[in-house]
Give the backbone structure.
Amino acid sequence: MVAEIISIGTEILMGNITNTNAVYFARQCAALGIDCYYQDVVGDNEERMTQMIRTALDRSDLILLSGGLGPTEDDLTKEVVCKVMGEPLVEDPHTRALIQSYMESHLKSNPDSAITANNWKQALVPEHGIVLDNENGTAPGLIIEKNGKTAVLLPGPPIEMKPLFEERVIPYLRSKQEDILYSHMIKICGIGESAVETEILDLIDSQTNPTLATYAKTGEVHLRVTAKAENEEKALALMAPVEEELKKRFGDHIYTTDEEVTLEEAVVHLMKKRNLHLTTAESCTGGAVASRIVNVPGASEILEQGLVTYSNEAKQRYLGVSKETLEQYGAVSAQTAREMAEGGCCHTGTEACIAITGIAGPGGGTPEKPVGLIYMGCSVNGKTTVKEYQFRGNRTKIREQAVVKALTLLRYCILKQ
């Protein structure tokens, strides 16, 4: 099955909103084993929408559309798709009743509002289509099948679109396929993309089913293992030997096999397991490491303090970095990073501290200490490790790389003990 993704909305073309729906659809298609060769965006214009939908139906078996199902005049998706596919629109009493109930509930919280006539436009559905009840809004999702082609129409807001897709569209699409793709994600940190790919070239060259694909992220590499089978049990059996081989080759560099788990979540979970408490001591990253940690629910169980010691005076006052070290070696040095990490533990009473000092640019670099030079110190239970890194890119990129590397170093130092 070949799918095409069409996002409807002038606001997307103008850059007023980010088109996250297309990314979501693409990932879902990949997980379902549906090929996707085209992604399109079109504004709220009937002529251009008609042309794009006709083209999509000519070259694809399935089109996934989001947006343009609202009650206003410029919401044209349903009308245009039905016109192109030769499907009349009729009012659906069930959908009208759901809209009535939803609007009445809305009016209780918004007494100044009113149900307007254009709301009932959303009760018009394709005569022979499949209606997907929307519990989070007034626009139902729709599936239209005609002449071997299928169009799936979903509301634009992700809070409405995703539940409809996951609860109704995925089972529908699976019912149309003999074999389904199942996949697991193995996430690796501390090794670069080239090194990872070199390590698994033999697996890639010999792959048939399951398959193995690499995805490079900032400071991480993700490996997706995908198997095609008639059910999940058989797919898992196919994937198991490959996953075991990857674990043998990459060992502790694998921080999770759960696609939803982030690096910071893995670190927080590890610290909870080891009953460790953390202080972050940051200079050039300006609190970004602490921010990543705080993204994790329950981070308060392990994060005691986050210190941004940007100036030399702050490094001395809050972390106990000696004046002599700063004068002799400079703020950006292995010696300062070590004293920052050890001082962070000493001054806050935590078992662990990750410290970062460096030159994020664009200015401030010298031939001896260029832009992108970062030193990190990590102290865990009295043992301190210091690392030197040289990152490339603009200021934002350098800081992003430093944050990921700091989380990786913290995890490494904990595992090492």
